[in-house]
Amino acid sequence: MSTITHQQQKSYQKLINILSIAIPVAVAVLLGIRQRIDLGLWTKTLPHINGVINSITSIALIIGLIAIKQKNIGLHRIIMLIAFILGSVFLVSYVLYHISNASTPFGGEGWVRSVYFFLLISHIVLSIVVVRFVLLAVYYALSNQIDRHKKIVKWAYPIWLYVSVTGVIVYLMISPYYS
């Protein structure tokens, strides 16, 4: 994006506000539907694919940070867009799995159960929060509002990295219980 008008900026902000609410609400509604949709056995592989996607996203986020610290803006931009695309693919894959398969109960006991649920709950809550931050960070970067981009990524980046890494940890903890 080049220079944007005030009206365009208001339109983009409105879209980000709508998406920041609509995405978590849509996911919650889809996950709340008790009737499962038969999409086929291939959906059983989605948690494993999601684990890989979260792992690659975590690595991309770290590489993106290193790139910007080294002032390699071109690499930073490419890597962060890859992370954003991976996050979008993850979201679609996550919803497809959960609308077609029953939730897998965690079978761990004792202290590990408490750790699992702490990580899971903090992961879910922060994954809702991070949507707005990431959308704003991408928008500010693409619209060349670098000062605003820098301000928002101070919040967006650590939350996004935490969500991505805890996604991998939660997956590794529950993966033995997938049927």
TrEMBL record:
Bilayer-spanning residue ranges: 12-33, 45-66, 78-97, 117-143, 155-174
Top-rank lineage group of the source organism: Bacteria
Pfam families named among the record's database cross-references: DUF420
InterPro entries referenced in this protein's UniProt entry, alphabetically: DUF420 (IPR007352)
Keyword Transmembrane: yes
Keywords recorded for this protein, A-Z: Membrane, Transmembrane, Transmembrane helix
Name of this chain's protein: DUF420 domain-containing protein
Source organism (scientific name): Xanthocytophaga agilis
Upper classification of the organism: Bacteria, Pseudomonadati, Bacteroidota, Cytophagia, Cytophagales
